[in-house]
Amino acid sequence: MIEKLKLKQYIPQVVAIAIFLSLSIIYFNPLLTGKKIKQDDIVSFRGMSKEIVDFRNETGEEALWTNAMFGGMPAFQISVKYSSNLIKKIDSFLKLGLPHPANLLFLNFLGFYILLLVLRVDKWLSIGGAIAFAFSSYFFIIIDLGHNSKANAISYIPLVFSALVLIFNKKYFWGGILFSIFFALEIGANHLQITYYLGFIVFFFLLSKLIFALKNNEIRAFAKASVIILVASIFAIATNISLLWTSFEYSKETIRNGSVLQYKNVSSTGLEKSHITAWSYGLLETVNTIIPGLTGNSSEENLENCINTNLYVSENEIEIGDKQNKIPLYWGNQPYTGGPNYFGISIFFFFLLGIFILKHKFKYWILLLILLSVLLAWGKNLMILTDFFIDYIPYYEKFRAVTTILIIPQFLIPVFSLLTINQLITNSAFKLKNIRYLTITSAIIAGFIIFLLLFSNYIFDFSSIHDKRQILKFYDYDFLETIKLDRAKLLSNDLLRSLILILVAALSTYLFLNGKIKKSVIIIILTFLFLFDLWTVNRRFLNNENFTDEKNVVEPFEKTIADETILMDEDPNFRVYNKTVATFNEASTSFFHKSIGGYHGAMLSRYNDIVKYHLKKKSKNVFDMLNTKYFILRKGNRYLARKNKSALGNVWFVNFVEFAKNPIEEFEFLDSFNPKTTAIVNEIFEDYISGISSTISGKEFINLTEYMPNFLQYESRSERKHLAVFSEIYYDKGWNAYIDGEEAKIVRANYLLRAIVIPPGNHLIEMKFEPKSFFVGETISLFSSGILILLLLIGIFQGFYKTSLKLN
């Protein structure tokens, strides 16, 4: 009998998991037929990571470096497997082995459901709450775009927060272990911007706890919880130390840390403010978090969804550019968007109601943080606040797209709303008072919607500052007017939709408070309301049309005749400049060749300087020293490969060395030097370069004999001491050189290349990428994650042991 009672209490959890599994599979049902989702950023990832993945498949090792992009760069933020992190196994377990992206949706459900249970929300209501969080539109938009690491990191926010709450509920052992594990998984998702914003949530939560502790004379309990959080965080960081250490080292050399130059419009510290705030939410646009079509849907809407524009195109028999019938229904201020960050009008209804009625210790810090997040998302539209955070809040300037901070209200608004609903259905003491506030809330939201329904056509002209670039550059004003009609129609439809949803939420809540319907009925109604509200909006941005055959995902790029010509070259290492694409913002070239260009948000800073100045003005010397052997050109519909006969090859001896006093001199020398005969070297390396011969005989040579991404081997013969310049990107955080097995100093030449002093005689020169941060970090990670796994197993064993004692 006792066992039956024990099993019965787990029925809600079993039902919840069954619902979450079903919704994950149903939404992404093409996965059942073997199709894969085609994501723009993952298509680019295929190109970026091709050399790394091929090397891993061939050798079973991690390359840690790739020459396929930007002349060469570390692979840490592209594709590296940190196999010593045992906690990663838990990630796979939590996702139940589901195919991507159904696994991420399920994790979203599961994490938020667990959090609501920890917050003592009704078990059945928690299912509806998990749906409200997991179906937030931003999650589906970033999945469509291919921001998988971001989506994964967001999914762990509820789990980290639930462990934090457990600690302060004095569940010290389990709270500490779970916080460490979930925080380790959050960091391991490898999207530091999301982890950084999680830090905002944790900080405000701890600050509120400190205030309560001081007020209630509970400072010792706060201190104990804080120590547990600190120790758990150390283990989480240690578990991911190889990822964090390599990323930290690398970040100091990238555009995220600014440029060593302080002129030519290159920022000297961090990202430029214009880059950080390029994607800023408009003040009006903020309302699309509750009315999805307020500023349009996406920047590339399907033509068939546009009634007036579709008719116009049909009647005038015009073609829609290169975007395959994609129309910019979005008319906000952002340069581009995949859709609104829609939280749901139905969930927002209870958020607003909660401002009036919720009595919970979380209330005020949540409201304050939501407000701050919305204001920071405005970015360039509220520079007084943005400037303060960029200038004074540590690391804030390292991240672009300030709109991403809306993941904080995306998480906190459902938390706040579900706490409100839970109070409504469990606390009958204030029913009459709640009915009064329910009326006020309904009047505010319904009144706002009705006002927009009546006057939106008079208030808005439905035009965008980007229309000139996106539409009028190709089409006439009549075409723009039809698009504006569709924008207006979308808004009116969404306003009517929102009004109906609000009326359903208000009426069902009113009936419950008056005792007309039961608790179970109101929970079912609200669960279906949340699901309908968010599901129907999400299908606008991510639906079955986003899926394709697996082959199109695994091999997203087709070879051109130019590609085939270049691939016939037996030289193991040279670079290609593809002039037929947006060279420095694409990855198709990297899929087949070692590219001068590429696609990545954290390019090496010195290479970025070269791109912005020397490569943009087509500097022949720089192309030659980068061993740009082929240029891909387009002539009509044909792609041609033109060989650059002056490319300097993999390595060469130089006759002369010019010493520069600082990076600016290094950079400026590149305008007028001959890289074949001269090397530009900063004077900090002068002590390593002495007695270099300027005479190079015909019998002297240095050649590349073996190539791998992380290993280069050369043979040399020289009668005198020479400086050899290698057409390889300088990176002193791991590249080591050896001459006949003895370590040799690598100096930086020509602003961004490597150079080594080669003594007379016959020599074997090797370059190996051996970053200490990775190899030492992996050892620490194995030890730390092993301890966490051991503690978890001990906790599980103790739990089973205590349960068996009670049953006996």
Structure description:
By secondary structure, the protein is an alpha+beta fold. Among the domains are: about 45-80 and about 560-645, no CATH class; about 650-770, Immunoglobulin-like, CATH 2.60.40. About 50% of the residues lie in helices and about 10% in strands. The chain is built from 30 helices and 20 strands. The protein has a five-stranded antiparallel β-sheet with strand order 13-14-20-16-17, with no helix packed on it. A four-stranded antiparallel β-sheet has the order 10-15-19-18, with no helix packed on it. A three-stranded mixed β-sheet has the order 7-8-9. A hairpin with a 2-residue loop joins strand 16 and strand 17. Helix 15 (about 305-315) runs antiparallel to helix 22 (about 475-515). It is globular and about 100 Å long. Residues about 265-270 have low confidence and may be disordered.
Summed up:
The protein has 808 residues and is an alpha+beta fold. Among the domains are: 46-78 and 558-644, no CATH class; 651-770, Immunoglobulin-like, CATH 2.60.40. It has 30 helices and 20 strands.
